[in-house]
RNA sequence: GUCCCCAUAGCUCAAUGGAUAGAGCGCCGACCUUCUAAGUCGGUGAUGGAGGUUCGAUUCCUCCUGGGGACACCA
């Protein structure tokens, strides 16, 4: 909260200053973190931004701006630095007061928006129910679930949804595959179709089929396998602490007539034409279209492609009142992005209301040995197996640390062997240590559990280790806004790592329970409470536990 | 062939166009009579190559090299 308030103060003052100086500040005024060697809380490159057009010396402008900013109530000092930065230090008392409210007030954290808040729908995982969830789904699940939690924490209206492809030819193919496994199990001649699903998991499912399965049709077999696999997806997601507001079935779109309605709607908009007995979506020539060729909606055999129900699904999302659609896809689907964007435009919806986060795939290793993930070849490593091996906390934190764009290497042996060295423990350990301090403080009579801690004199928290911690805590809400801006939880995970890194030196040098006097101890206890609350809150947003003892 | 993503320390990865590029692990050397040594302190060490835009480029643009992925009337 403190940084947002400070930024508003700085921006307002700077604009007044710019008007007086006769220089033009840009619309967006970015605040950046100062480099390690500069003793300040925020750095402003604003004079550099205006120096050129104003034909003024940037350092002179910085000096002038620094004088103006020094007058602000929250500012302890503002000074110019070459080539034209203004470094601003916040008053210690402001940082200390922030300790009473480190975990933000969501209402106050929103940007200055007007009108009703947008309703956001985040769709993720949406894996085909033709096999168990694998690692890539775990990454998508981490990104999506954490993003939804963060958006909600910021007061946004965000929902999570899982789309189930339970219609079409794949069900029959799945049925043929499992039926072959079933017959194999009965020592009868059978062959899984070449393009079918060859994974071992179908053997287990076939063996578990009821007695009447002997007379099942291919499609009946397919539905049986699909529902069983879908149930495993639900179990995996639950074990991964990932929850969805709705599991949406593709078959609903056919049953309700939404698919046909969508096609009729596109026709009415003049976006559709027929060629060679097929029905095409004519987006390639459309203005601003993102796709370079037209795509088939209905094949010449009269059956819809997968594309048409997908469009119907996205139209349904809009019609349910969502203003902003965020889809999270694996990189293997990136080629589909221009097509879907073109479809959204064809529906007459603003292109910017639809956003796809494409996350790169995970390269799985066992030691130096690469493990190829292939759902159809049956050699992939299921998510559930990895979660069992390395734990949910380590898994989610590891995925959350990386930008969606990174191609991350995940070495199963290393993750297992060195699990105690995983960064997540580094963060959790701080939480456990703080909790230990509170237990000791209770035993020593310094602080009764649950009692309110008084706001201390800022001079009580003036040691470098204390001040660095207070300043870091003040950035927590900004980090959540970074996550929203980048649509990724990775700034939060990295922030928690940095916060943990600042706690340990404090712990070494600033005794709490055995402080010089009780007032000093209670001041540090308040700082500890801030650290505890931010870590607990931050880890919770990442779906990671915060143990009180380790 | 076309398109997307990536290339940063020995390894895994950070860094809204900003200053002396940060962490963790590893390695070398110190720290447990004091709230958890799963820790701290010190040392080590990096932007693939060539141009361009900019006051300023890890970041933006072009080309090259290397790696991953996608290019159906498949789902």
Describe this structure in words.
The chain has a five-stranded parallel β-sheet, sandwiched between helices. The protein has a three-stranded antiparallel β-sheet with strand order 1-3-2. A three-stranded antiparallel β-sheet has the order 7-8-9. The chain has 550 residues and is of the alpha/beta class. It has helices at residues 2-21, 46-54, 58-69, 92-98, 106-109, 135-153, 169-185, 201-207, 218-239, 250-255, 258-268, 307-319, 337-346, 383-390, 392-401, 412-417, 423-443, 464-474, 476-486, 490-509, 518-541, and strands spanning 42-44, 75-81, 85-90, 119-123, 157-164, 246-249, 272-275, 278-281, 295-298, 324-330, 354-359, 362-366, 369-371, 408-411. It contains 21 helices and 14 strands. The chain folds into four domains: 2-90, Gyrase A, domain 2 (2-Layer Sandwich), CATH 3.30.1360; 124-246 and 360-418, HUPs (Rossmann fold, 3-Layer(aba) Sandwich); 256-342; 422-541, Isoleucyl-tRNA Synthetase, Domain 1, CATH 1.10.730. The chain binds one RNA strand of 75 nucleotides through helix 2, helix 7, strand 8, strand 9 and strand 14.
């Amino acid at each position: 909260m403190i940084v947002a308030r400070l930024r508003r103060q700085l921006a307002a003052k700077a604009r007044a200053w710019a008007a007086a100086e006769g220089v033009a500040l840009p619309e967006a005024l970015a605040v950046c973190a100062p480099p390690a060697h500069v003793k300040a809380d925020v750095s402003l490159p604003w004079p550099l931004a205006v120096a050129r057009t104003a034909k003024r010396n940037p350092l002179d402008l910085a000096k002038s701006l620094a004088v103006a900013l020094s007058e602000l109530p929250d500012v302890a000092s503002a000074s110019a630095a070459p080539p034209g930065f203004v470094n601003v230090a916040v008053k210690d008392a402001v940082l200390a007061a922030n300790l009473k409210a480190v975990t933000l007030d969501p209402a106050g954290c929103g940007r200055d928006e007007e009108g009703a808040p947008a309703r956001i729908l985040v769709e993720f995982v949406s894996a085909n129910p033709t096999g168990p969830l694998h690692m890539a789904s775990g990454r998508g699940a981490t990104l999506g679930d954490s993003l939804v939690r963060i958006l909600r924490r910021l007061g946004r209206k965000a929902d999570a949804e899982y789309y189930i492809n339970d219609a079409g030819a794949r069900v029959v193919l799945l049925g043929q595959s499992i039926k072959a496994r079933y017959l194999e199990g009965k020592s009868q001649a059978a062959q899984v179709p070449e393009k079918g699903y060859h994974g071992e998991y179908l053997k287990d499912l076939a063996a578990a089929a009821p007695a009447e399965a002997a007379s099942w049709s291919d499609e009946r077999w397919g539905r049986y396998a699909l529902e069983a696999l879908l149930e495993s997806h639900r179990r995996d997601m639950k074990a991964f602490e990932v929850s969805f507001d709705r599991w949406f079935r593709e078959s609903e779109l056919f049953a309700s007539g939404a698919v046909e309605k969508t096609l009729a709607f596109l026709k009415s908009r003049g976006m559709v034409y027929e060629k060679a007995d097929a029905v095409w979506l004519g987006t390639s020539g459309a203005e601003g279209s993102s796709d370079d060729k037209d795509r088939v909606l209905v094949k010449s055999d009269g059956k819809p492609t997968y594309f048409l129900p997908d469009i119907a699904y996205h139209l349904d999302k809009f019609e349910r009142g969502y203003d902003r659609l965020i889809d999270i896809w694996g990189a293997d689907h990136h080629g589909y992005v221009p097509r879907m964007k073109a479809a959204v435009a064809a529906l007459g919806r603003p292109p910017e209301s639809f956003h796809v986060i494409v996350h790169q795939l995970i390269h799985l290793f066992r030691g130096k040995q690469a493990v190829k993930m292939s759902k159809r070849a049956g050699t992939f490593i299921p998510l559930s197996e990895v979660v069992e091996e390395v734990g949910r906390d380590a898994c989610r934190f590891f995925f959350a640390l990386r930008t969606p764009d990174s191609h991350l290497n995940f070495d199963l042996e290393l993750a297992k062997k060195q699990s105690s060295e995983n960064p997540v423990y580094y963060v959790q350990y701080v939480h456990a240590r703080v909790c230990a301090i509170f237990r000791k403080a209770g035993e020593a009579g310094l602080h009764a559990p649950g009692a309110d801690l008084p706001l201390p004199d800022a001079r009580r928290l003036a040691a470098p280790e204390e001040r660095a911690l207070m300043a870091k805590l003040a950035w927590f809400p900004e980090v959540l806004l970074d996550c929203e801006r980048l649509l990724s939880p990775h700034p939060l995970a990295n922030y928690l790592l940095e916060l943990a890194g600042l706690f340990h030196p404090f712990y070494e040098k600033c005794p709490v329970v055995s402080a010089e006097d009780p007032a000093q101890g209670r001041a540090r206890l308040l700082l500890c409470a801030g650290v505890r609350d931010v870590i607990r809150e931050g880890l919770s947003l990442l779906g990671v536990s915060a143990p009180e003892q380790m």
